[in-house]
Structure formats: structure tokens, C-alpha cells
Amino acid sequence: MERDVNQALAREFGLNAEEYNRVLEIMGRTPSFTELGVFSVMWSEHCSYKSSRVWLKQLPTKAPWVIHGPGENAGVVAIGDGLAAIFKMESHNHPSFIEPYQGAATGVGGILRDVFTMGARPIANLNALRFGSPDNARTRRIVDGVVRGIGGYGNCVGVPTVGGEINFHPAYDGNPLVNAMTVGIAPADRIFLSAAAGIGNPVVYVGSKTGRDGIHGATMASAEFDANSEEKRPTVQVGDPFTEKLLIEACLELMATDAIVAIQDMGAAGLTSSSVEMAGKGGVGIELNLDNVPARETGMTAYEFMLSESQERMLMVLKPEREAVARAIFEKWDLDFSIIGHITDTGRITVRHQGEIKADIPLAPLNDQAPLYTRPTVETPKQEQLNAARIEDRLGLTAGLRKLLACPDLCSRAWVWDQYDSTVGGQTVKRPGAADAAVVKLEGLKRAVALTTDCTPRYCLADPEMGGMQAVAEAWRNLTAVGARPLAITDNMNFGNPEKPEIMGQFAAAIRGMAAACEALDFPVVSGNVSLYNETEGKGILPTPAIGGLGVLDDAAQAVGYGLPSWLDIVVIGKTQGWLGQSLWLREINGREDGAPPPVDLAVERANGDFVRARILAGEIRACHDVSDGGLLVTVAEMAMASGVGARLSAHPREIPGHAYWFGEDQGRYVVAVPDAASFIRASEAAGVPAVRIGVSGGGDLTLPDGGTISIETLRADHAGFFPAWMNGDNRS
Amino acid sequence: MKAGIVVFPGINRERDMAIALEQSSGEKPRMVWHKETDLSGLDLVVIPGGFSFGDYLRCGAMAARSPVMTAIHAHAARGGYILGVCNGFQILTEAGLLPGALLRNASLRFLSMDCQLTVERADTVFTKRYQKGQTFRSVMAHGDGNFFADDATLDRLEGEGLVAFRYAGENLNGSARAIAGVYSPNLRVLGLMPHPEDLVDPLMGGTDGKPLFDALAAA
Q1: What was the pLDDT predicted at A232?
Q2: How do A539-540 and A121-131 pair as beta strands?
Q3: How far is the C-alpha of B12 from the C-alpha of A156, rounded, in Å?
Q4: Nearest-CA neighbor of A201 among A344, A329, A350?
Q5: How near does any CA of chain B get to the CA of A49, in Å?
Q6: What are the pLDDT digits (tens) for A130-167?
Q7: Three-class SS of residue A184?
Q8: Contact A158, A108 (CB under 8 A)
Q9: Rounded distance, CA B216 to CA B194, Å?
Q10: DSSP tag of A663
Q11: What is the DSSP letter of A454?
Q12: Which of the residues A21, A138, A165, A233 has an alpha carbon 20 to 30 A from that of A336?
């Protein structure tokens, strides 16, 4: 079972020669098999952030409302009424490619634990998904499994899945992205942290039993894929949402007492990372006796116990006199409860198994001397700005709109949402497809949180800095569009192989753009996750810094959706220049993926958004939708489809070609429905915010400025067709 | 009417149900753990939705054999009121307190969406605040809501007026004769798949489910 430890084995475990030499130096001897396992997972890209740490430091993480920024299990912000929102997004990309259902399901389970381990009751889940081309036979199986997995876990555990996004691109063919986000609510003065304390205090294991599943999952998540990746299926964990539900209730019940000193879930690298991080953060030592770890299988070795990623497990440090209280709660919920060790003053992690010491490692160097790389970077060359007048419009507005609404990246996601329970909890004010951000009310209060996930990977590929900036700005815009005050973000950085300078260049540039946007919009990063090596056979994904945004509404009744009401003026806020570079129209209609992406002007972004939010809260705006993929015409069509109310659009300005005006993706814009455009525009001009009336709502048709008329029913049929037809097709692989 | 909500491990809509009951009655319902055996003092026993015991066996099968079920059978025998929603409906059929069974949805997929329900009779303690033949909106969220019974049972249910609600419009989960909810012969036990408790507040999109709770509160 245990193999000889040497450089070759270290390489197999993902440690390079330099890293292995550092292990030898720290240990002063050849490490044991178990010790090598501990080093290799703690120093994996997934756990150590060794390639990304130097860049992540550039992100703004502070604001008066931030209670805990990056470094804890999840980010914590004050939202008023003495409450805190706790949230984070995390990737489960590699497992979801190998085994889509379980990969996605355990992704949801893992992020839920990161949130409730801090004392929060989870109130909402979101997910940001990227899949390969729909023409690739494998994509359908992955979409089906991922959607079933997210639903299977989230529905059972009873947390509503309220939002998210889906993109398709051939660059994700061999490497789909599954980024899951959870938001929870806790009293702001009852946040639970992971730093262990109290020499002699018991270390308690609760939840599911440990099996051999997921061993070395963190290492797998830190390597590229090749044709044999399916052989890695045994490293994918299996989820049990029922146990997770019990664990949530039991932990929250225990957290209402004063028994807990520290608590952390066992996520990537399982017992190893939880015990090492808890003791490391507390500056203490920890001794574990693996004989007391509840095991699902017989004959497990110390190495297997330490590296298993069995799901639904937590590690806690308790006050010694409170053991009985805690045990009674977990027994009530039929969960395992076992004292597996205690806190020591040695500064070491000592692991005993069957009478032998299997690992004895000093914690400070294991944590502090983790590798840190400033890898070489190469900037992505800038693309030139396209001249819209030189781009031919072959289809015209009507056919162009219909084709865009039916394309995989823009079509209705109802087939997906309809498989996620979005209403459990009874507090969902804006469900998927009703508003730019999901709105979930807090039980018994007027207050609500607004939630969104955003990223436009094709912008990020063309210009990673502008793409990173745009992702943050769009999240801020989506929260603003429902009337919420944006507070903070979580980021999920999905990139290719960091050892390639052009990939590391994308990463560094995206961070620069994100940092600038966070700064300008007072929208700090409070938690996040980095997923690198998203490559299969040397082909990288589109750079995808997925942003999860959180905002707050003091009164849920003030939230607006994007369903267009009848007989109102339709106004676009923000300047329309007709930017076609990297637009969906250019890709879907002209088959081109080129040009510079639309620039974000952060000062304009802020001014436009602050104006829109103030008008929403003043009750002047009856519907609001930000302008994003597909441009202005798609935005109006989406508003019309949401309510079933049509619109008549006015002629566009002569100096801009029609297709550029209506399909361009200029940033910082919103379409709003207001009772009186004239007075609204006067107010916007006074605030220095450009606003133009573009039409009026009413009837059952969308009438375009070129005279084309389409019924909303036709638009809805175009929009709804893709997913059911594609998923129910008969060439399922 | 004094209400209690039975909580099995894995139930997840007990909070929604408590909010709806309290909003109509002004009184917090008693939360009853599944290992309790004393339901005295309760007029109405509610079994809410969720995934009791993970529904890893047939939906509701494990819960139907939980300690509290003996007391629930006794409560039914003495003419007490019982409301089972979603998993609660599945549990009541598994316990033999209501006829039929809930199979996988015809689409073999979980369905989370609004549906329209037709009120088959408006003279029961649950439906007095609706009109006969009225349709109202409800939320469905289930993977196994496809009501099934043999033809003789279905004929009997229809003949004896024990169909509570039917799906109006599209019968999304494939239920026999579009049945969404049924009564016991004494009309005091109601099971239904959709969630009236999730539409009792205009902020959540409507109050179509509220008359059911108002009627129970007034009884």
C-alpha cells in the first residue's frame, strides 16, 4: 500500500523537484508516505494558490461594510438590521467534466458548507456554467448531468437556486466550467471562524463517514486533462444532499449554543487541509488519532484518511465542557460525532494511526513556505476597433433579432431553471428570468439581498483587462438594475495553464481590470477561488473570471424586474455608439469573433448606475434591464417577452448604422420603462447622464424602426426553442 | 385551529408552511419532531414538503414508518385534520391515509414552475374560501408528482367527490386525470403536490394560496 518516497513519487503527486527539495529541508529527513501526501495537497495549486497569490493581492478587499474579506471560508458583509451576508463562489470544473452529475452536485455541496460553517443559514444558490459547443456530441451529456446534479443537490437540501448564467463556446469542449455560489445570512455578531485555540481542547469530527472517494482530488484539479482523464473518475466524490441538510440543521443548532471554538468544513484535501488550516491559523498544534475517524470502509490507511475528499464532513474545536451538549445535537440528527484529537502547543500536526505516528510535520513551514511563483506573463495583443459602417448587415433587424434570440448563448434558459427549485423558503421575490438580479427577502424583514453572476468570456479573450473590468461592472449594473445597492463580490478565476506566459498574462490583466472596477465602484472582493489548468490536450478555455455580486435592498417591495408594462415610455440610459467588436451579433450573424471589445468607462458606469438606482428607489422606473449580450434590440425584446407586452420603437440617429445602433454592445447602459420620458430625461440631463427615448410599450407586437413587426408570441417561440429541441434530440451520446 | 408541523429529517419547506399558517391564524404552529408521539391539543397536523430521509427509497416510504406516524394515524381516526403538501402528500399515500401513489414526473425531470389548479369542491374545511370551479395559481417543485391509481380507484375518487384539485391547462407531470390533490373519505385529510404556502404574499408574486390558510385559520 505505502510506496517508497522519492523524487519520482513526489512528481507523481504533483510536486516538482524544487518543491520536493523544500519538503526534505523542512522535514530534515525523507518524509513518510502520508507526510508526502499532506505536502502535495497543501502545496497543490488548488490549495496553495501558488501561481495566483501575487496577483490576487492587487484586488481591493476593504469597505466599511466588509466584516471578513478573503482568507476565511467565505466573505462576510454587513447588510443592516444587525445581519451579515456570507457568500462565496467556487469551481468544480475538473470533476464536472469527468462525472458531470456528481461533479456539479458536490460543487453545490462544497460551497454550501463554506457558507454555513461560518454560522449562516444558506438562503440562495447561483451557478455560472460554461459548456462546449452544442455541436459537440459530448456537450449535451455534460449539460444534462450538470443541470441534474445542481438540481438534485440544491433541491434536496432545500436552498433555492435563484440565478446564474450559461455560455457555450468550443473552447470549453474538453473543459466545462461549473462555478457554484452560495449566499447565507447570519447575525453580524455571531460569525464562526476557523482559527483553532485552547490547548487540550477536543477536535471533533461530525457528518458523514470517511471513505476512499476523492483521494487526491485537489491534485487532479491542479493538472491539465488529456485523453485518459476519464480514468480519474475515482477521484470524483459522491454527494449526499440529505446528510448535508442534516449537517446544516445540526451545525446551526449547535452554533446557537456557546460550544464552538472554531469550525471548518472538510473540502478539498479533506481532513488534511481542515486540520492544517485550523491549527495553522490559530498558531497552535494539533494531534489526530485516525483510529477514531468514522470510516465507511475497512482497511483504510493513514494516507487515505488524510487525503479522502468524502463529502458532508466538518471539523470543529469545542470547549471541553460542552462536548455532551454537542454530541446530543448530532445524535438527534443521526450524524456521526467523534472526538478524533486535541489541540496541542507543539506547533505541529501529529497523526497517529493504529499505534504508530504516521505523520509529524511542523505547521509553520508547511503553511508559510508553500511555493509562491511570480510566473512570466505575456500581454494579450490589443485588437483594433472595428468600424461599424464597414460591416455589412446581411439579415436586417427583424431576421437578425430572431436569429440572436434563438442562438444558444441568448436563448431562454427556462429548460434549465425549471429543474431548479427557486421558491423553497418562500422568500424569492425575483425568480430567474424576472429581473437582472435575483432578489431574495430575509424572513420576517423588509430587507432583501440581490444576487447575480456575470462574465463575458469572449471580451476577456480579446482584452483580458477590459474583460475583467467589464465582468465586475456588469455585476454591479445587474444589481443596480433591480434597485439594489451593490456591496461586494466573490470571484471565481477560471484560466488555463499558468505555466504558459500568455495564460498568466491573461490572469494578471484580468486582475488589473477587476481591481480598477472594484475600486471605482466601491465593490470590493470578499471571497474567491482560483481554478487553473483548465486545459485539455494543450487547449485552454476562454479566460473566465466569473463574478458573483451581492447587493442589498432596504425594502424588497422596491425591487423592479424587467417585464415591460403597457403604455409606458421606453428610455435608454447611457451613450449608444454602436460598438460591434466582439458583439454576439458579429459572431452569430457574420461568423466573426474579432475586434476590440466595448470599453468600460468606470466614471460613466458609476454615474449612470447611481442615477438609475436613485430613480428606481424613487418609484419612477417601472421596469429596468441592463443592455448586454445582443445589444439594445435584444434588451427590449427580452423585456417584452418577460411580460408579453409589445413595443413600438423609434428611428435611430442617422449617424449610426441601424445594425450597430440596435445590436452594438456599448457598456454602461440600461433600458427603463417610465410614465413620462420628457420629465425623466430632463432629470437625467441635470445629472449629466445621457438618456434617449427609443419607443413606447403596448400591444402584442414588437414594431421595429424599419417597419418590421414581430408578435411577442413569435419571439417567445424563437427564444424558447433551442434547449428543449437540443436536449430532447435523438442523437444523445 | 391549533396547527402543528411535522418535521422529518430532510423536510425543507417547514419554514414556508409555518409562515403561511401564522400569517393567516396569527399563531405560531407547533413544530413536531418525527420522533414525538403525542399530538394531543392539535386540530390540524401539517406534513410539509422536502426530501424526507433523502427520498433515497420511494418518496415518503421511510417517513411513513417514523414513530410519529402512529400518532398521525390516531389523529386521522379521531377525525382530526391533516394537510400533506408535496413530500407530505407522498408520505400520506405511503402511510395509506390517502389512496394512490406519486410516480416520477412524465418528463423524468424535476419541475419547478407555476401551475394552475382548479378547485373541484369549495365546501371543505380547506377550500371554503375558494369558489367551486375557480382556478388559482400555485407553485410546483417536485420530481415525483405524477399521481397514479388504478381506474377503479380513480372512478371511486371522482364518484365520491374526493378529488380536491386538478391541473388546469397543461398536465405537466402526467398525473392520472390531471389530479393534483385528493381527500380522504371524511374530507378531513388533504394531500396535494403544489405549494399553496409559497404564494401567500404579493411580494413573492401573489396570494393565490392564502385562501386555503385563511379557511383553515377560521375553522
Answers
A1: 61
A2: unpaired
A3: 8
A4: A344
A5: 36
A6: 999 999 989 999 999 999 999 999 999 999 999 999 99
A7: strand
A8: no
A9: 17
A10: H
A11: E
A12: A233
For residue A669, CA distances in Å to A77, A441, A575, A637 come to: 27, 27, 7, 16
Interval B176-197: pLDDT, tens: 999 999 999 999 999 999 999 9
Nearest CA among A541, A542, A536 for reference residue A224: A536
How far apart (Å, rounded) are the C-alpha atoms in residues A327 and A131?
44
Q: Which residues pair with A535 in a beta bridge?
A: A540
Give contacts of A 219-258 with B, CB under 8 A: 240-243, 245-246
Q: Cβ separation of B9 and A240 shorter than 8 Å?
A: no
Are A131 and A144 in contact by the 8 Å Cβ rule? The answer is: no
Using CA coordinates, name the residue in chain B closest to A414. Answer: B113
Give the CA angle between residues A67, A440, A641 to the nearest 5°.
Answer: 135
- The grid coordinates listed for A562 are 424587467
Q: SS3 helix, strand, coil % of chain A, rounded to 5?
A: 40, 25, 40
Asked if A535 and A496 count as a contact pair (C-beta separation under 8 A), the reply is yes
Nearest to A486 by CA among A334, A302, A600, A613: A613
H-helix segments, A158-295 = 217-220, 241-255, 270-282
* Residues of A in Cβ contact (< 8 Å) with B195: 423
Q: Which three cell numbers stand for residue A191?
A: 460569525
A46 as an active site residue: the answer is yes
Neighboring chain B residues of A333 at a CB cutoff of 8 Å: 9
* Burial status of residue A699 (CB atoms within 10 A of its CB: 0-12, 13-18, 19 or more): middle
> Is B12 close to A157, i.e. CB distance below 8 A?
yes
Is the pTM higher than 0.90? The answer reads yes
**B contact test, residue of A423, A429, A430, A445 with most B CBs within 10 A:** A423
Close Cβ partners of A667 (under 8 Å, ≥ 6 residues apart): A470, A473, A574, A598, A599, A600, A601, A605
Q: Supply the angle between the helices A100-116 and A241-255 in degrees, to the nearest 10.
A: 0
What are the strands, taking DSSP E only, across A345-455? 348-353, 356-362, 428-430, 438-441, 448-454
Sign of CA dihedral A43, A47, A51, A56: negative
For the CA atoms of B78, B101, B166, B53, what is the dihedral angle to 10 degrees?
80
Q: What is the ipTM of this complex?
A: 0.97
**Segment A488-527, tens digit of pLDDT:** 999 999 999 999 999 999 999 999 999 999 999 999 999 9
Looking at the complex, report in whole angstroms how far the Cα of residue B156 sits from the nearest Cα belonging to chain A.
34
CB neighbours of residue A241 within 10 Å: 26
Q: Do B110 and A426 touch (CB under 8 A)?
A: no
What is the spatial distance between Cα A198 and Cα A191, in angstroms, rounded to a whole number?
19
Task: Give yes or no: A216 in active site.
Answer: no
H helices then E strands: how many in chain B?
A: 5, 11
Backbone angles phi, psi at A641, to 5 degrees: -65, -35
Q: How many angstroms separate the Cα of A506 from the Cα of each of A456, A500, A510, A599? A: 14, 10, 6, 17
Handedness of CA A665, A670, A675, A680 (dihedral sign): negative
pLDDT digits (tens, 9 = 90+) for A396-409: 999 999 999 999 99
Q: Which of A240, A420, A424 to mutate to test the interface with B (most CBs of B within 10 A)?
A: A424
List of chain A residues whose C-beta atoms are within 8 Å of the C-beta of residue B197: 426
Non-local (6+) Cβ contacts of A178 within 8 A are: A91, A92, A93, A96, A103, A104, A107, A127, A129, A146, A150
Q: Which three cell numbers stand for residue A402?
A: 430572431
Q: Position A8: which residue type?
A: A
Pinpoint the alpha helices (H) of A52-165.
53-56, 93-98, 100-116, 137-157
Q: A-chain residues within 8 Å CB-CB of B114?
A: none
